[in-house]
Amino acid sequence: MKASSSSGSIIPGEELEGWSSWSPVSLDGFTQALSPAQLVAMAQMRRPGQSLAERIAAAEPDASIPVPLAEAEAQAEQVEQDAPAEPEEAPAALGYPTAAELEAIHQEAWQAGHDAGQEAGRAEGFEQGLQAGREQGAAEARAEQLPRLEEAWQALRSMGADFSAELGRVERELAQDVLKLAWGLAQKLAQQKMAVDEQALLPLLQAALAELPSTLANARLRVHPADLAVARDFLQQEMPETAWQWVEDPQMSRGGCVIDASSVRLDLTLETRLAAMSRALGLESGDERQPD
């Protein structure tokens, strides 16, 4: 081949020697263009489950051993047939559980029931123990405190009895004092009424007539000067057949009188009547003190 011209990149046809035209071969004849060693290497590289380095190492043929074309194609086809197919996912098996599964289910259920029962029993036992402890503690506290309470109650009972007795004494004393005070006030009120009421002597004289004889010839009436007119008018009207002697006594309290007859004497003075009432109330005459 001649040297090419430096003036252009196109080589004239007359300058080329020993060339031939090229056309692409079909895919079906692709394996015919490969050597037997290349066919074996390609088949080994298609095996699944190997890394890229392992495939390349396995694909490298031993150059020292020549392999015929027919034998190489047969080896490549055998490699493809021997390659394991990718496993398909088996559908989930449907059916009754096995005896082992039933035993496992039974064991799990028994263990769950055992744990729940144990927990419930523990809680119930704790509650019962707590209640029993409370009752025992309360009983021990009662047994321990009962003697002390009994002793304290005896002391309170004795104190209550003493208090009741003292209260009764105070009540009696107070009642006596109150009675004396009330009686003193009553006497004072009676004296004041007799001093201002001119007719206060009439009920007393009316009561005295029942104690005098039905026939009385002579009698004497001693009375306060202020009550003489009222007493004389009443007795002369009620006992006209009796000859009365009228005696005025300034020392006598108003509202009272003394009637003297041959067979009877009536002391109806205010002091005598108050003394009788005082004795009836249980008050001594010496204890009578009229309020100022």
UniProtKB/TrEMBL annotation:
Residues 152-275 form the Flagellar assembly protein FliH/Type III secretion system HrpE domain. InterPro entries: Flagellar_FliH/T3SS_HrpE, T3SS_Stator/FliH. Residues 1-27 are annotated as: Disordered. The keyword Transport applies. GO terms for biological process: bacterial-type flagellum organization; protein transport. It comes from the Bacteria. GO terms for cellular component: cytosol. Pfam families: FliH. Keywords: Bacterial flagellum biogenesis, Bacterial flagellum protein export, Cell projection, Cilium, Flagellum, Protein transport, Transport. Residues 1-13 have a biased composition (Low complexity). Needed for flagellar regrowth and assembly. Belongs to the FliH family. This is Flagellar assembly protein FliH.
